[in-house]
Automatic annotation (TrEMBL):
Keywords tagged on the record: Membrane, Transmembrane, Transmembrane helix
Protein name as it appears in the record: Type IV pilin accessory protein
Membrane-crossing residue ranges in chain numbering: 12-31, 43-64
Record carries keyword Transmembrane: yes
Lineage, highest ranks first: Bacteria, Pseudomonadati, Pseudomonadota, Gammaproteobacteria, Alteromonadales
Superkingdom of this protein's organism: Bacteria
Length: 235
């Protein structure tokens, strides 16, 4: 293996790692603040994207770069490789970005995640007069609004921000988690004066922690085998 091929390979590998590191930072700290990246298994898609991006570019470089080629041919090869790698990265990121949690909405005793792809672009850009946690809205839907919405609209009521309401203690306390049944690490962190509600994700479940003033202060992952109904009370 000639030295030019090795040099190009390592340069491309280092650049790819730096780019992937930046992408991972954006996904974990901006698009999917903890624990949302674990709740819906987004980290798995991110790992696939990272693996493909780190492998694709440097591997193609290793195959195509050759000291027998002219400078023009080498530049053309690298241009094609970079375009392929960038296209794969942009496509993967566009799919992952659509999975960003935009709101968590309470209905029928539990919270549900609403992602960017679940609502229209105009609704996504509209600023709502609702509280936020880590720049994610949290709200509730009342049964009476569901009935009215079902009669007038074809879209799912969960994906209709026009009927989102500020949460109330009366609604949130319905079917709240039993403090005694919460995992020990949550009990060690929070006293029983807090209100705990379930949030079901695609891969993991979580407990939302509200203070007595109904401010959402934390979202804590539950053990992987836990189901929200197994630790809820019958309030």
């Amino acid at each position: 293996m000639n030295s030019l091929k090795i040099r190009y390979f390592y340069r491309h590998l280092i650049i790819s790692i730096l780019i992937v590191g930046s992408v991972t930072y954006i996904c974990q700290l901006i698009w999917f603040p903890s624990p949302f990246i674990e709740l819906d298994g987004t980290w798995r898609a991110l790992l696939v994207l990272i693996g493909v991006d780190i492998t694709l570019g440097p591997l193609l470089t290793l195959i195509l770069v050759n000291s027998s080629k002219s400078k023009f041919e080498l530049r053309l090869d690298m241009l094609v490789i970079v375009l392929l790698q960038a296209s794969a990265l942009i496509f993967g990121l566009s799919k992952i970005e659509q999975e960003r949690v935009w709101a968590i909405v309470h209905y029928d005793g539990a919270f549900h995640s609403i992602t960017k792809k679940d609502i229209s672009e105009s609704e996504y850009k509209t600023k709502l007069n609702l509280p936020q946690f880590q720049k994610i809205y949290f709200a509730m839907i009342l049964e009476k609004d569901v009935n009215n919405h079902t009669k007038q609209e074809s879209t799912s009521f969960l994906f209709s921000p026009t009927i989102y309401k500020n949460i109330t203690k009366e609604e949130i306390e319905k079917q709240s988690f039993s403090y005694d049944n919460l995992p020990e690490y949550i009990q060690n962190k929070y006293q029983n004066k807090y209100i705990f509600k379930g949030l079901a994700g695609k891969k993991r479940n979580a407990a939302l922690v509200f203070n007595p003033n109904m401010k959402l202060i934390d979202i804590v992952l539950l053990p992987e085998q836990s189901e929200p109904e197994n630790i809820s009370s019958n309030n």
